[in-house]
Design brief:
- With about 180 residues, the chain is mainly β.
- About 0% of the residues lie in helices and about 40% in strands.
- It contains no helices and 13 strands.
- The strands form three sheets. Strands 1, 2, 3, 4, 7, 8, 9 and 10 form an eight-stranded antiparallel sheet that branches. The chain has a three-stranded antiparallel sheet with strand order 11-12-13, with no helix packed on it.
- About 20% of the residues are buried.
């Protein structure tokens, strides 16, 4: 486990990044099999593309990715081997997840996905209407990872400790928790 709080964030340029900095939340350097960082971009900010699959979630401002301009709550999944560069025309913040793609025999790789988180249907977690999950990547075996948002009403909680083999990255978008 690794817990980072905003007072411990280290901002540094990402390789090839211009007019911006990155806050790395998880990476192979700490044993994770994925990288998660927040890109903080100024006017004309740019994060270069990657050969890895990339998921982008816009927190503030506008970011151009995969030929589309995304505002707050906008997201894009860019398949491995496609550009996926980020560009901003004004200050913006986006969370980025990158991971090598692991193909499944007999299954074609997934296509790109563009969406807006508030437009995704929320589903109660374990039947609890005070805890809603929104899936941002389709439930399709072609995808080898998932990205979800969870909305907890005050007092709501996940009523169990999860035990499984999947790795998790977590970023609080607002509020706080224990």
């Amino acid at each position: 486990h690794l817990l980072q709080t905003s007072d411990t964030f280290i901002r540094a340029p990402w390789a090839g990044m211009t007019n911006g900095t990155a806050i790395v939340h998880a990476s192979p350097a700490i044993g994770a099999k994925f990288t998660q960082f927040t890109a903080e971009l100024e006017t004309g900010g740019h994060v270069p593309g990657t050969h890895l699959q990339r998921f982008v979630y816009v927190l503030t401002g506008e970011v151009q990715v995969a030929g589309t301009t995304l505002g707050p709550g906008g997201f894009a999944y860019v398949p491995a081997g496609q550009d996926g560069a980020l560009r901003s025309t004004a200050s913006a913040r986006a969370t980025v997840i990158e991971k090598p793609y692991i193909p499944l025999a007999g299954v074609a790789p997934p296509a790109g996905v563009i969406g807006h988180e508030p437009d995704q249907p929320g589903q109660p977690v374990l039947g609890d209407p005070d805890l809603q999950v929104r899936s941002l990547i389709p439930a399709d075996v072609a995808f080898d990872f998932a990205v979800n948002t969870l909305a907890y009403r005050p007092g709501a909680s996940l009523p169990m400790v999860e035990v499984h083999v999947m790795e998790h990255g977590l970023l609080f978008l607002e509020g706080g928790g224990i």
